[in-house]
Amino acid sequence: MTTFAKAGFNAVSYATFRPSYPAQVFKTVLSYHRGPSNLLLDLGCGHGLISRELSPSFKAVLGTDPSASMIKQAKASSTSEAYKNVEFREASAEDLSFVGDGELDMVVAGQAAHWFDYSKVWPEIGRKMRKGGTLAFWGYKDNVFVEYPGATKVLDEYCYGPNTMGPFWEMPGRQILRDKLRAVVPPAGEWEDVRRIEYEPGTSGKGSGTGELLMQRRLKLGEYPEKKARKDGGEGDIVDEMFDKMLEVEPEWKAAGDKWRDFEVENEWGSVILMARKK
């Protein structure tokens, strides 16, 4: 998680461009939870969205993140009286020494679990979680243009190709996420009732994938973030180059001419929710 922990990381921009979690995600994990709801721990809380969403369901919520800028943004976004039971602190998932043994009722992590060192995280959570407590980790991978397989193929090539952005991803974390957290396996000796809810998008239209669809959104092509905008007079960067290739393979997009950025497309994200209960 080194990128997010860097002092120069822009937490505000990060919060703006992340797709939001649908209500169904929170409903699913809360329905799975049983027993007391005194203390929830949100690992890798980022700007605090999950901590705030789940705060009405717990007496107290603690959000942690190794990034100082993320914690600053989380605090700034949680000043409302509605979040008076939410606390944020800079900390890693591998060190929960500030939590008492057996105090946790639930531990969640949204779009963060692929970064954890599980040789340390499993023992830590195991000590801090009460018997019957709940674990819920979830995440999503790259968006798919569900009605445009050509553009989806170009997107994948530019994101992971050896001559484009592929070498710049932090591994093995990114691959763990792309594999929908299948490498994250709760130790059988300490956890039971393990459940996985997965979705893999298709390219034959909305809902054409396999599994339970959780994350979808209709966006204009111009809403995808750019590092350097050709439209603002720049020479263009790899993102501009990628969209040029997409326009070549998707005649419908190209037919929009200079207004291609206003073209709306359906997106779905491959996703996973992993849940388990402490023995």
From TrEMBL:
Gene3D superfamilies: Vaccinia Virus protein VP39 (3.40.50.150). Residues 41-137 form the Methyltransferase type domain. Coiled coil: none annotated. It comes from Lachnellula suecica. The gene is TMT1_1. InterPro entries: Diverse_substrate_MTase, Methyltransf_11, SAM-dependent_MTases_sf. It comes from the Eukaryota. This is Trans-aconitate 3-methyltransferase. Keywords: Methyltransferase, Transferase. Belongs to the methyltransferase superfamily. The lineage of its organism: Eukaryota, Fungi, Dikarya, Ascomycota, Pezizomycotina. Pfam families: Methyltransf_11.
